[in-house]
Amino acid sequence: CLFKMSFGEILPIPPLLEEKDGVFNLKVIEGEYEFFDGTEESTLGYNGNILGQTIRVKKGDMVEIHVNNSLKEDTTVHWHGLRVIGIMDGGPHQVIKPGTTWKVRFPIEQEAATLWYHPHLLHKTGIQVYKGLAGLFIIDDERSDSLNLPKNYGVDDIPLIIQDKRFDSQMKLEYLTRNEDIINGMLGNVGIINGVVDPTFKPQLGVTRFRILNGANARTFNLAFSDNRSFYQIATDGGFLEKPIRRKSLLLAPGERAEILVDFKSLNEKVELRDGDYSLLTLIPKDEESKVEKVPKMLNQKVKLPDTSKMKKRYFVMQGSGRTVNINGKQMDMDRIDEYVKLNEPEIWVVTNASHHMGRDMMMGGGMSSMMGNIPHPFHIHNTQFRILNRNGRPPYKWERGYKDTVLVDPGETVELLVEFRHAGLFMYHCHILEHEDMGMMGQFNVS
Ligand code: C2O
Ligand code: CU
Ligand code: CU
């Protein structure tokens, strides 16, 4: 199903956004962009034609960001994974009108992690992200500074924004042109990394760190290397794991992030990063030594979960298919608050995907199970980093025991999440398949 035109272009690295007089300035612009030679598309970007510059901050910082909307349409900017008060969250209520500037100022109160930012306009999130609006938001802290990890951005610390887009036979970009798009969400036929089709990156010899964001609208990627090598996962959505976990593949749903370490030992190790059989990125080591030779043994404090037996439980059932997708029988309503939650009081969110289990089938191209609407839903919660307590009563996988803000819930599965909110205001929870979100698989909760 997937086709590709190979450019062998060098992987672009989204530049770090420089502060000016203590302010990060983002301008939302419409641009022209060539995914394929000679086919100009109208795209959206932050300070550029596509995607956004990387915002990098430190725990303890007071951060100020000004977002200027130069589009002819509304937008918002949501800081995905960040703990901030409701009016700074950038959800569907914080609309930035054309020609206006939205100013936020908030302290960074959470540990080192790879977060991201993207629009969150009611019913329009899917198209705006698809046209190019997404950027990384990296937090450093004392621990990340002191660990012996690759941290030279763009050299041995490499961001990978993985997406897919669909092009027609004339190589023009398509969005929501097929009936099944309403059910599956918008699946592409071409893989895109950092805005480019099939790029090549030349890592140093030694250990390279990849910060991977699944920034796709709907596709869950099952990432692995063409030589079946193992790698180490060191971080989840919201921070470092306790220790590196050795893995051979990495399932990453829309909205999720993972950081991995990959060791390159010799110059002739040409290897591809793939989703199933589909090659997304080619890696060819270069004759240069990386500063990091070994994978650290420990990364983060031991996770100590509190006694959860007396905590309040709240239930969320994701159900329906296509235009009927909903949570607890309700579709998103800007004027309805679905849940009232107490500030600083941990509780358990029990999230169920009520479609029937038909097995996982999410390689590029989709399959029968997704046609029937029995698809895994990545459930995302604003203003928190949670812990997964269990999946269908069983302990979570060891690579998902770090902080999470998005969790993939399979058909027939129930996951229990330990959540806590430290900032007040109105926030969203939703499926991160953006077409599901846009069709109403979203609810609002108030924290006070
Ligand atoms: Cu990444 Cu509510 O979004
Ligand atoms: Cu979010
Ligand atoms: Cu969904």
Automatic annotation (TrEMBL):
GO MF, one example: copper ion binding
UniProt domain Plastocyanin-like: residue ranges: 30-143, 318-448
Superkingdom of the source species: Bacteria
InterPro entries, per database record: Cu-oxidase-like_N (IPR011707), Cu-oxidase_C (IPR011706), Cu-oxidase_fam (IPR045087), Cu_oxidase_CS (IPR033138), Cu_oxidase_Cu_BS (IPR002355), Cupredoxin (IPR008972)
Keyword line: Metal-binding, Oxidoreductase, Plasmid
Descriptive protein name: Multicopper oxidase type 3
Source organism (scientific name): Ilyobacter polytropus (strain ATCC 51220 / DSM 2926 / LMG 16218 / CuHBu1)
